[in-house]
Amino acid sequence: MSDVYLDYNATAPVRPQACEAAIAALSAVGNPSSVHGAGRAARAVIEDAREAVAALIGVPASTVIFTSGGTEANALAIESAVASGSRRLLIGATEHDCVTQTALASGAAVEVWPVDAQGLADLDWLAERLSNWDALDGRPFAALMLANNETGVIQPTAQAAEFLRAHNGWLHVDAVQAAGKMMVDGRGCGADSLALSAHKIGGPQGSGALTFGPRATLMRRLHGGGQERGRRAGTENLPGIAGFGAAALACALDIDQLAAQAAWREAAVAKIRAHAPIEVIGEAGLRLPNTLCLAMQGFAADLQVMSLDLAGIMVSTGSACSSGKVRPSPALSAMGLEHLASCAIRVSGGWATTQDDWNRFAQAWLEAFVRHQSRRPTTAA
Ligand code: PLP
Prior knowledge:
Layout: E1 4-5, H1 16-27, H2 37-57, E2 64-67, H3 70-83, E3 88-92, H4 97-105, E4 109-113, H5 123-131, E5 141-143, H6 157-166, E6 170-174, E7 193-197, E8 208-212, H7 238-259, H8 261-273, E9 279-280, E10 291-295, H9 301-310, E11 313-314, H10 330-334, H11 338-341, E12 344-348, H12 355-375
Helix pairs in contact: 1-7, 2-7, 3-4, 5-6, 8-12
């Protein structure tokens, strides 16, 4: 039987269209900055990809800057805010490490914007914090992800943006996990800047984008040539960008299908729950349709992942970047669920996932659970 890959939030399999586009770009000659025919053809590949990525989130192509991935896109926004005078950054408590660590390294003061037990950012805290803003801290800047990589919880970015706008603030939205898994309205979600990553939507790794609105002041991050409208020097990653564009086009076509994953996920949860008292993190709120963060007290996450792997089912213990580290998941800790962090796994489907994949996951998990229970020492009555 073939393996089941349910770790799309770490990296989605590359879509055939993206693979074809990347290979075609690799096979072609030409620097996009050259004025001859080959150069112009390479430039056209980039601009077509820019249109496709922009269309996926409904923003003008002229506002899309290609980067080396989601990490760099987030860094470009945060470092630009600091360079343009923000001296205090409000960072969502469940943000990806690349956001939190870039903020901490930026030299600005960093405040953690708390979340509730469902992982939702506390808007009252934001309102209160902004109403007491010290002018010496410069322009308010806040980062709030659209959807969480570990739990799939969707944040109220549009409401947060209203508060920030009332104080001339800048809201940066990390939409790396949301894009391609839910409809993302690049401006409607309230973002003044928004980060995307190709490999989370079925494009190649090492390609991403930042889109920005009129209220974001972007700096030049890499110096040299005038690529990406002077914001990011260096010859563009043509195959990566071509693959990103093709993946964005394909995403736009199957985004409705992806919604079906929620029903498949819920069926898997119901099957497991009939035999095991699992907890589903963030279950009460809005979540991405593809993501399940499941915790079972007494059944260690790495044991769950290894048992599933032996059965040919690939899932992870948290975000790819934090797995392997001993520290508990910062996202679950921020939700007050530290006690579940060591026994929580993340299961995430995507464009090639079938209902049978979710079924096989549920079956394999239950078998692993029963084996685990049978090995546990029984306490004498
Ligand atoms: N933001 C979120 C929410 C992520 O999940 C990730 C990757 O896991 C990133 C940013 C980083 O993206 P990239 O791997 O393209 O640098």
